[in-house]
Amino acid sequence: MLKRRFGKTEMNLSVLTFGAMRIIPEGSETQTQCTDRAFATLRRAIDVGINHIETARGYGQSEELIGRALKEGVIKREEFYLTTKIGPTETAEQFRTSLDDSMKRMGVDFVDNLDIHGINTMEIIELSTRKDGCVEASQQAISEGLVAHLGFSTHAPVEVILAALNTDLFSSINLHYYFVNPRNKPAVDLAVSKDMGVFIISPTDKGGQLFNPPPKLVELCNPWTPIQMNQRWLLTQPQVHTLSLGCAKPSEFDAHLDMANREQGALAPEEEAIFATLAEAMRGMGSTYCSFCHACLPCPEEVHIPEILRFRNLAKAYDMLEFGKYRYKMLSHRDPATGERIGGANHWFPGTDGSFCTDCGDCLPRCPLNLSIPQLLAESHEMFSGEVGKRLWAE
Fold it and tell me: Which of 214, 277, 308, 380 is the most buried (most CB within 10 A)?
């Protein structure tokens, strides 16, 4: 598999990283069945050429299963770089306790890369970087030889990501950045200007549930698959170093390997034509297209206007209705009985759904496209609302 230098860490990472968040028990699966599947999936990751395994303290049994796989010789520590992620804590002592426990779970005495998990707000930046905070604990672990590098993961608005990058305390970043959502490009560019490693979170899932694409998107990407086109869009950018792949079983690697083993030069003319076709389909929405500029924010009711209208774009242009429903359900919503605001993914995916729009008109003068935002929010809510969803991991 192709490899890229992961910024100033100097780690030479495969362009696919195995994100081990889904090797935990599924449904009615027994612990033995889960362990067997986890072991087989971890082994397949190494066998296809992946040399980076990424997990998190909050990913259920993931760290323990990696530790068992190492102990039983299913995988060998020298075969891969290891990243784990730990959520922010109030004190350095608490963070260090979490790190020591994570290393014990995995049965390792060295972690190649440690990420502060979820720097999603300005307040979390302050919490993480203050004296006696997470960064101080991480730097102490680095000085002791327990950790090689410190990075961070983020689901934040781009302005928060830029602020975190400008602390100059980190060597790498995990963030969202996809063909269907390129808004974080300024953060990617800033990270590269600082010679940081750039890790793309879950491009197949958060990038559009491309493992289950609607027929229209398949047709628009033909003869390639949507997964392959998203990989090409990312990997033709040299500032992108590795893409997370959260496989739950060994066979799920197959759809990603062709592009990961292909020399990533410039887009071929036929690939450029596919992206032009995709862009044309989006433009075909006409006067209701949202450019995702975020000028409509802030909303007095905290409605996540641009993200909701982005889901609408994708549903209208590419028939990605199910993806829109999947993400929309994670916004805060109204209790059917009381009408009160409940649920949501907090700082991981903030804001309320379209039902909270009061048609106050506050956003209208700020929209450069003069969209009828309240009307589009009402339409989107009808399109996407249904069973309430939640994040896979709550931290």
Answer: 308
